C-alpha cells in the first residue's frame, strides 16, 4: 500500500453527491491526488453497488472501481433534516460534485444560484447528460445512448458490419475526466478571484469531443465518415495484421517508420513503390498493402515480431487480453495496479507527479460522517459563508 503524503490537492475538500460513473470517476481522481472526498449516497446506496457480478460482501466490482479515496455517508436529501446536514458539510467544502437531473437540487433549495449566494467560494460541478437547456436540455443521458447519438457507434465496427458500441463506457469516463479538469481550472481561477463558479461536463459534449479525426475529416471534405474496422481512416498501415500465430497491431505514422518496417521484413522495395512511398499513397492503396504485408508475415510469430519491430522503432503491439494487459510487467512497473488492505485491487492513477504523487488512502466503502481535520498548511479556502 502506498504511504500517505501531501498530494497536489491536499487541503481541498470535496462533497461528492454523484452516482454511477462520470461524477464518481471525477471524485476518485480528485481523491487520488489528495483531496478529502466525502461521498454522500442516498439511503439505498449508489446504484452501481448492484451492477454485477462479480460481488464482494454483496457489493459489485463496478462500484469498487470508481469509489476509492472517499469516505461514505448516506443522506436522504428529500428530508429537510438531511439537507441541513449537507449544508453544514458544504460550509466546509471547496467543491461539490453532483449529477442530479436538472431541477432536482433546485426543488430542494440546493441549486447553484442559492448555494453560490451562501457559499461564494464553492465550486459547483455538475455532470449532466445534455446540459440544462437547448433542444435536449434536462434529459437524462447514458453512455451507450450518447455513443449512438454522437456518431461514435457509426464509425466503430467492421467496415461491412453494423454500428457498434465501444466496449467500455468511454463517454462516461471522458466526461469524468472533463469534470475533474473543469474543477482544477475553477480552483486555479478561484486563487485569483476568490470566487467559485459553476462547472458543467455534459455527456453529449464529451461524446462529440471524441470524434477526432472523423469530425475534422467531415468539416474539410463533407464526406460522412464510415467504419474502417481496426484500420485508421487517415493513415496506413495503422491496423491489425495477421501473422502465423496471433495478430499484431501496426501503428506506422510516417515514411521513416514504414521504411524500417519494410527493411525488417526483408521487402525494402515496398518502401520505394510509388503506391506506398508516401503516407497519402499508403492510405489510398491500403488493401493491396495489407495483402503484401500479411503475405510476408504469414510465417512469422506475432508476439516475437511485435517485440522485434518496436525495438527497431516501428510502433506496434501484440493484441492482448485484459488479463494479459493487467499482468504485463510494464503495468507493474508503471504502478497501474493498486493493492490495499482488505483485498482491494484496482487501476492506479495514470497521471504521475514527481513531488506529489497520487496516494491510496481509503478503500471503497470506508465510512465517515465529516471531513477529516485540516492539517497545517492545507487550507484549501473552504466553501465558507459570505
From TrEMBL:
Organism superkingdom: Bacteria
GO molecular function, a single term: transferase activity
Alphabetical list of InterPro entries matching this protein: CoA-transferase_III_domain, CoA-Trfase_fam_III, CoA-Trfase_III_dom3_sf, CoA-Trfase_III_dom_1_sf
Region (Disordered): 366-386
E.C. number(s) listed in UniProt: 2.8.3.19
Pfam families: CoA_transf_3
UniProt keyword Transferase present: yes
UniProt keyword list: Transferase
Name recorded for this polypeptide: Acetyl-CoA:oxalate CoA-transferase
Source organism: Cupriavidus respiraculi
Gene that encodes the chain: yfdE_8
Amino acid at each position: 500500500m502506498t504511504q500517505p503524503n501531501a498530494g497536489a490537492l491536499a487541503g481541498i475538500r470535496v462533497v461528492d453527491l454523484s452516482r454511477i460513473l462520470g461524477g464518481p470517476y471525477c471524485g476518485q481522481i480528485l481523491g487520488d491526488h489528495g483531496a478529502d472526498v466525502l461521498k454522500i449516497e442516498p439511503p439505498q446506496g449508489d446504484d452501481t453497488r448492484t451492477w454485477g457480478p462479480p460481488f464482494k460482501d454483496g457489493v459489485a466490482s463496478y462500484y469498487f472501481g470508481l469509489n476509492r479515496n472517499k469516505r461514505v455517508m448516506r443522506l436522504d436529501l428529500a428530508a429537510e433534516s438531511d439537507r441541513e446536514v449537507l449544508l453544514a458539510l458544504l460550509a466546509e467544502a471547496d467543491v461539490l460534485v453532483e449529477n442530479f437531473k436538472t431541477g432536482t437540487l433546485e426543488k430542494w433549495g440546493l441549486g447553484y444560484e442559492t448555494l453560490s449566494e451562501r457559499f461564494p467560494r464553492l465550486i459547483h460541478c455538475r455532470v449532466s447528460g445534455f446540459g440544462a437547456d437547448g433542444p435536449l436540455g434536462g434529459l437524462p443521458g447514458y453512455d451507450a445512448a450518447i455513443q449512438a447519438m454522437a456518431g461514435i457507434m457509426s464509425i466503430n465496427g467492421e467496415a461491412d458490419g453494423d454500428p457498434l458500441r465501444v466496449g467500455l463506457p468511454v463517454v462516461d469516463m471522458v466526461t469524468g475526466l472533463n469534470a475533474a479538469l473543469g474543477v482544477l481550472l475553477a480552483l486555479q481561477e478561484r486563487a485569483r478571484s476568490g470566487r467559485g463558479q459553476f462547472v458543467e461536463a455534459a455527456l453529449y459534449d464529451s461524446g462529440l469531443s471524441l470524434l477526432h479525426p472523423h469530425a475534422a475529416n467531415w468539416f474539410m471534405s463533407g464526406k460522412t465518415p464510415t467504419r474502417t474496422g481496426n484500420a485508421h481512416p487517415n493513415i496506413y498501415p495503422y491496423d491489425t495484421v495477421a501473422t502465423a500465430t496471433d495478430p499484431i497491431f501496426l501503428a506506422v505514422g510516417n515514411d521513416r517508420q514504414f521504411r524500417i518496417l519494410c527493411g525488417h521484413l526483408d521487402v525494402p522495395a515496398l518502401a520505394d513503390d510509388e503506391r506506398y512511398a508516401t503516407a497519402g499513397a499508403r492510405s489510398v492503396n491500403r488493401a493491396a498493402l495489407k495483402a503484401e504485408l500479411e503475405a510476408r508475415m504469414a510465417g512469422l510469430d506475432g508476439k516475437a515480431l511485435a517485440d522485434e519491430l518496436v525495438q527497431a522503432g516501428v510502433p506496434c503491439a501484440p493484441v492482448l487480453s485484459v488479463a494479459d494487459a493487467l499482468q504485463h510487467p510494464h503495468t507493474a512497473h508503471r504502478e497501474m495496479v493498486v493493492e490495499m488492505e482488505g483485498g482491494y485491487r484496482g487501476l492506479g492513477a495514470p497521471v504521475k507527479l514527481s513531488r506529489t504523487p497520487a496516494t491510496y488512502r481509503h478503500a471503497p466503502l470506508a465510512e465517515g460522517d465529516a471531513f477529516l481535520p485540516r492539517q497545517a498548511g492545507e487550507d484549501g479556502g473552504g466553501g465558507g459563508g459570505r
